[in-house]
Structure formats: structure tokens, C-alpha cells
Amino acid sequence: MSSFRRVLRTLRSSILQAIPTAIIIVILNFILLQMAPGDVVDVLAAESGAATLEGMTEMRERFGLNAPVVEQLISYLGRLAHLDLGTSARFGVPVSELIAQRLPGTLLLMVLALSTAVLIGIVLGAIMSAFAGRLPDRVLSVLSLLFYSIPNFWIGLMLIVLFSVKLGWLPSGGSGSIGMGLTGWDLIVDKARYLVLPAASLALYYVAIYGRLTRAAMLEVRSQDYVRTARAKGLPPIVVTVHHILRNALIPITTMAGMHVGAMLGGAVVVETVFSLPGLGRLAFESVLGRDLQVLLGILLLSSFLVIIMNALIDLLHAFLDPKIGAH
């Protein structure tokens, strides 16, 4: 079977699995959030300090919070069928607009952090596997274990202390310089400076995971018969390492990367709060505090779809890397 046909078959299987998964996720998100104590009316009443019982009842009726849970769920599913995520009770604007404003920053942060973690982790893992049992392997293993055991919010705070407070090289928070009127390349450089520390804070924890995973995968693949055959044919060591060992070792690494998309969305909540980034994670945190159910449902729905799409892409990559995957 050709690579193209394998990829198409894998894509069809991924879509068939994604549809019921998405429906179950939507319903579970709604039910779980309904079980949480309090609602947005309680928060708005506490903030105003002058709300009456009649006014709170009127607000709940306006927001549809007095209806039975089943009726609210049916109404929510009906809006989703028309691609309507609802309106934020706190901000009074469509949820889709709020998410569209915050999503690009979070996606950029996640892409930078995940790609950095995977690339550095693969390089470190390859070095550790090449020097297995020797000093470089032991030193890098200890460093990996150190970063793995430290929470990313603490790493973020230490990065701020070192690179912002002590050295003054990078900004400590925010998403860009205010009032500078930057355009073009200067704007890109300015935005990049504000993303270095958040991306590093989010990536360092995962560098340790990918480094140790790459080391274990490459050591396992190195002992396979086809690797010994390639060496016996007189192929250069770099060709054996890249084409035969690393290519097959990438399958568990990419699988783990797909699983980490959801975890990085959760980590973005902490990182964006520490570095004052106006992203999707910080919006989720603010929505939890404000009990803004519609915004939370929109964020959870989008996050679930991102994880599903990422895992489908990982399946397609596996079908390309390994001919045995997707052949049946």
C-alpha cells in the first residue's frame, strides 16, 4: 500500500473516531460545569454590592440559568449546531470574539514551547543514548530530572528574577511594548522578546520528558536487527542514526507530543498568569473566578478540538513514518 493510501485510510479512521468523541466531550463539559457551585449572577451581585433578590432572579431568567439542566443543554447544543458559542454574561460580547482575541497568543506560545521542547529533547536524548552509562549521559540525566521535578510556575519566577530583575535582558511580563508605534521587523522582535521567558518556562519541563524518552527509544531501536544489518552494509554512522534509529524512535516521541497539547493548554493558564499574557489560559482563569459558564464552555470546547486535531495529525505522521501503521 502506498504512503498516500495509508495516510488517507488513517485520516478516515481519525475522523470517524473524532465525531463521537467531540459529542461526548461537549456533553460532559456542560454537565460538569453545571455541577460547580455558584453562577455568574452570584459573582456579579457580590461585585456590585447592591443587588437585590428580585434583580438576581431577573438576571438568571435573562441568562437562562433558571431553566432545567436538560433544557439548558438542549439549548446549548442547538446554538452549537449553528456555530454559536453564546454570549459572555460578564463582558456582554460573543464568546467567539473573546476567544478569537486571545487564541493567537496562546497558540503561538504553545507552538514555540512544544517545538522547542521536542527539538532540544531529541538532541539531548540522542547525546545521552550515544554516551549511555558515561559521564555526559549521567550529567544530562540529572539535569533532566531536575527540570522535571520543578513546577513551571517556579521556573517562570526564577527566569524573571534572573533575566529581568538581575540582568535586565528581557521584559518580565506583558505581550509587547506600549506606545512605541513599532511596525514590521521591529514589531516582530519586540513580540519575540516578550515570549522568550514564557515559552522557556513552559518548555523546560517537557524538555526533560522528551530527552529521557528519546534516550530510551533510541537505545531500544539501536538493538534491533535491521540496525545491525545497516551497519554491516557499511552505511555511515550518521545515516544509520538518522534514517534507521531516529526515524523509528520518533513514533513514541510524537505520540507523547500529541498527548501534551492538552497538558500545555493547562500549563498556559499558570504561565500566562505569571507573565501577565492576555491569552486563552488567562481568560479561562478569569472565567473560572467569574463563573462565566459560556466562556468556559467555549474554551473547553476549543481546547478539546485542538487536542483531537493534534492527535489526528500525529496519527497521519505515524502512518507516514511506519508503513505498518494504517495498512489495515
TrEMBL record:
<dbReference type="GO" id="GO:0055085">
    <property type="term" value="P:transmembrane transport"/>
</dbReference>
<dbReference type="InterPro" id="IPR035906">
    <property type="entry name" value="MetI-like_sf"/>
</dbReference>
<dbReference type="GO" id="GO:0005886">
    <property type="term" value="C:plasma membrane"/>
</dbReference>
<keyword id="KW-1003">Cell membrane</keyword>
<feature type="transmembrane region" description="Helical">
    <location>
        <begin position="234"/>
        <end position="253"/>
    </location>
</feature>
<feature type="transmembrane region" description="Helical">
    <location>
        <begin position="293"/>
        <end position="314"/>
    </location>
</feature>
<feature type="transmembrane region" description="Helical">
    <location>
        <begin position="259"/>
        <end position="281"/>
    </location>
</feature>
<keyword id="KW-0472">Membrane</keyword>
<comment type="similarity">
    <text>Belongs to the binding-protein-dependent transport system permease family.</text>
</comment>
<feature type="transmembrane region" description="Helical">
    <location>
        <begin position="145"/>
        <end position="165"/>
    </location>
</feature>
<keyword id="KW-0812">Transmembrane</keyword>
<dbReference type="Pfam" id="PF00528">
    <property type="entry name" value="BPD_transp_1"/>
</dbReference>
<dbReference type="InterPro" id="IPR000515">
    <property type="entry name" value="MetI-like"/>
</dbReference>
<keyword id="KW-0813">Transport</keyword>
<feature type="transmembrane region" description="Helical">
    <location>
        <begin position="107"/>
        <end position="133"/>
    </location>
</feature>
<feature type="transmembrane region" description="Helical">
    <location>
        <begin position="194"/>
        <end position="213"/>
    </location>
</feature>
<keyword id="KW-1133">Transmembrane helix</keyword>
<feature type="domain" description="ABC transmembrane type-1">
    <location>
        <begin position="103"/>
        <end position="318"/>
    </location>
</feature>
<protein>
    <submittedName>
        <fullName>ABC transporter permease</fullName>
    </submittedName>
</protein>
<feature type="transmembrane region" description="Helical">
    <location>
        <begin position="15"/>
        <end position="36"/>
    </location>
</feature>
